[in-house]
């Protein structure tokens, strides 16, 4: 099969993470620390495709772009995994579109992990580089035009790769078809496009199945946090009939579960940030009644949870969450400092005010736990005027959550000056520029998280495709997380300087693995352990 328009993305995005979404975070690690074989076999394995090279399932964003292009009258369009581009691209290919998430490893999670582990490119950046090499060699042969879009395309505002002809920011429905038309008809086209927001009736439904049975239910977020790239988007709820059409399509393709794409599931059907209980409940009920066995969602907000606990409980009942099959959505905690909340995210706490933020967070954690939902609280630390006192307020709020007995992950992230956000005057984070207390917050958070992960590993990997991979991943994660508490203590005590030591390790290749092992056995701690073992103290280890 060949296609005039081909869509793809790098392997960090075009994978099913062995069936367990949380494993995707491993791709944000410096690539020298995770051997390629583990990425290929466990964390980001290639997805299956037809013999033609066309994808069977694909990430939702690519499926949406495929529907937009196809609905505009261009029928020769295909989505392919990056490993199959050489098979599907040929002389009839005129346009190649890629969706990017973290092309240079500058996302908050990649930046945080780089700061912690002594720097180096993330796997997300490495995968993007691999994709670039494939595309350059095909482009030299077939001379097609490349456009790039997606949530990480803001990074190309900083530097556009030479092989990308058009950087497409924003939503695709209104402005991508005219761009395609210009390219195909040989007219001049711009190097940068800012896609306008369509109305809901201008958003087509996907025409082929999406990975994880993904279905979008909302777009945008009205809370208006300055640091967030979602902020500029107009908030919309997707009509129920379109959602159900996509659910049915995914079901027919064999998916039994649905991942709802949203920035806050309780925003569905809302007006002016008021939770629409009936709309959210109808959404879950309709999806279940269509024959879906499992429903998951990636984001929920604490104020909405506190404002409508009955909605949270009812959707949990409909989805049949229990202690073996719960939900772990990302929830923005951001800061414990009222000053920071008030200055950078005034709408965050609505319908309450910034001064109520701590109570909202603690209360929402309890409500979610009662509904078998474990929040993963993310924090944004490092605003240009953020002081140690501000960070200490965040540590206090973290300790309040822990002492309340609620189960919650705590995940401090550095503030990233995303070019599309409204944040001004913030530079990219460096270890020296972060408030000193950041490292203490990191230690408090990880100590809590390690303890929680050990208790929850069976639930976290519940959705893995293979029982064998489920078992070895569980064992591996338990070992890894069980041995790193001291690392976080060192980072806290040295205020991040210890991270430079980890910069010496390279586990990404056989030679790197051998060198790292050699460095490890020559380290003082291991030398002492070996000496004591020789002296007969082995039982103490
Ligand atoms: S609530 Fe979340 S999604 Fe909405 S603007 Fe704030 S950070 Fe962005």
Annotation keywords:
541 residues; alpha/beta; six-stranded parallel β-sheet; three-stranded parallel β-sheet; 11% strand
Task: Give the count of helical stretches.
Answer: 20
Biggest beta sheet summary: 6 strands, parallel
Mean pLDDT: 88
The gross shape turns out to be globular
Strand order of the largest sheet: 2-1-3-4-5-6
What's the assembly state of these chains?
A: single chain
Class by SSE composition: alpha/beta
Terminal CA distance: 59 Å
| Strand segment tally | 14
Q: Which ranges are low-confidence, i.e. pLDDT below 50, for 5 or more consecutive residues?
A: 516-521, 536-541
Query: What Rg is obtained from the alpha carbons, in whole angstroms?
Result: 24 Å
Strand content: 5-15%
> Which small-molecule species are bound to the chains here?
iron/sulfur cluster
Helix fraction?
Answer: 40-55%
């Amino acid at each position: 099969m060949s296609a005039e328009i081909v869509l793809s993305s790098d392997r960090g995005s075009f994978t099913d993470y062995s069936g367990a979404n949380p494993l995707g975070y491993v791709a944000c690690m410096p690539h020298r620390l995770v051997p390629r074989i583990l990425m290929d076999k466990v964390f980001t394995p290639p997805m299956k495709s037809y013999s033609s090279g066309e994808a069977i399932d694909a990430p939702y964003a690519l499926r949406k772009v495929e529907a937009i292009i196809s609905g505009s009258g261009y029928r020769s369009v295909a989505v392919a995994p990056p490993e199959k581009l050489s098979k599907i691209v040929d002389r009839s290919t005129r346009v190649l579109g890629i969706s990017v998430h973290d092309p240079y490893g500058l996302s908050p999670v990649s930046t945080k992990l780089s700061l912690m582990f002594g720097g180096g490119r993330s796997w997300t950046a490495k995968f993007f580089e691999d994709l670039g090499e494939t595309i350059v060699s095909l482009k030299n042969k077939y001379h097609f035009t490349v456009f790039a879009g997606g949530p990480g395309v803001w990074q190309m505002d900083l530097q556009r790769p030479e092989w990308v002809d058009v950087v497409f920011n924003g939503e695709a429905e209104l402005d991508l078809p005219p761009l395609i038309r210009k390219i195909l008809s040989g007219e001049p086209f711009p190097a940068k496009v800012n896609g306008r927001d369509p109305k809901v009736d201008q958003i087509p439904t996907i025409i082929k199945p999406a990975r994880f049975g993904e279905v979008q239910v909302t777009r945008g977020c009205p809370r208006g946090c300055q640091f967030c790239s979602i902020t500029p988007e107009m908030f919309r709820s997707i009509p129920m009939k379109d959602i159900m059409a996509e659910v049915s399509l995914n079901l027919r393709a064999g998916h039994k579960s649905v991942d709802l794409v949203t920035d806050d599931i309780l925003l569905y059907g809302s007006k002016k940030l008021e939770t629409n209980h009936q709309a959210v409940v109808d959404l879950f009920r309709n999806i279940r009644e269509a024959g879906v066995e499992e429903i998951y969602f990636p984001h929920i907000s604490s104020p909405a949870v506190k404002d409508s606990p009955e909605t949270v409980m009812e959707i949990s009942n409909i989805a049949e969450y229990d202690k073996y099959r719960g939900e772990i959505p990302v929830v923005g905690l951001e800061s414990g400092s009222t000053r920071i909340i008030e200055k950078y995210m005034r709408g965050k706490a609505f319908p309450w005010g910034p001064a109520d933020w701590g109570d909202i967070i603690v209360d929402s954690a309890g409500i979610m736990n009662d509904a078998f939902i474990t929040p993963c609280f993310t924090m944004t630390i490092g605003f240009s005027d953020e002081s140690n006192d501000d960070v200490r307020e965040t540590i206090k709020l973290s300790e309040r959550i822990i002492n309340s007995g609620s189960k919650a992950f705590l995940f401090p992230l550095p503030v990233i000056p995303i070019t599309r956000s409204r944040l001004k005057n913030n530079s990219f984070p460096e270890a020296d520029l972060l408030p000193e207390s950041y490292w203490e917050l990191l230690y408090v958070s990880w100590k809590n998280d390690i303890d929680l992960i050990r208790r929850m590993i069976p639930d976290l990997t519940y959705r893995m495709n293979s029982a064998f991979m489920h078992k070895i991943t569980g064992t591996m994660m338990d070992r890894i997380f069980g041995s790193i508490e001291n690392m976080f203590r060192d980072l806290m005590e040295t205020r991040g300087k210890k991270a430079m030591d980890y910069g010496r390790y390279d586990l990404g290749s056989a030679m790197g693995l051998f060198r790292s092992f050699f460095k490890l056995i020559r380290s003082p701690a291991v030398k002492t352990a070996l000496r004591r073992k020789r002296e007969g103290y082995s039982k103490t280890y």
